[in-house]
Amino acid sequence: MQLRKALESELPQIWNIIQYAIEQRRKDGSKQWQDGYPNPTSIQNDYDKGYAYVMEEEGVLFAYGAVIFDIEPAYEEIEGKWLTNGPYLVVHRVAAAPEAKGKGIGTQFFKALEDLSLNKGVYSIKVDTNFDNAPMLRILKKLGYTYCGEVYFRGSARKAFEKVLLPKSE
């Protein structure tokens, strides 16, 4: 399983993964992603900015996420307190394909992000999710993310988490 930047030719497959995730959120009774976001324009923008990443194995896409090594404006005002104030990786729009169900792909995706972040010398990952996104909340708990408070996106509160990474010892 490999984490890598998405190819433009994969955008239709990525959109299918996102649509599957939107439907899963709806079936779970979640309000997240039930208002026309994300949409194909969101994914195209991720690609255009170099944020679009996929987990793939032998050409099969198992997960997608927007991986951003830049300041997230919504994270500048948190109701709570981040663990760190330095550079960080932020991940948005994480979604897993139907083929990934029950295979721990979300966990693998986040572990691969930790490696990517460390390789770039960035020792913090910040992420947010809806209060009712149980699968994401389970992944974040399992991987040791710390709840830091709430941030707001498009008028809605999101639970904000951070994980401080330790540099790899030589």
From TrEMBL:
Domain N-acetyltransferase: 1-168
Superkingdom of this protein's organism: Bacteria
Gene3D superfamilies: 3.40.630.30
A GO molecular-function descriptor: acyltransferase activity, transferring groups other than amino-acyl groups
Protein name from the UniProt record: GCN5-related N-acetyltransferase
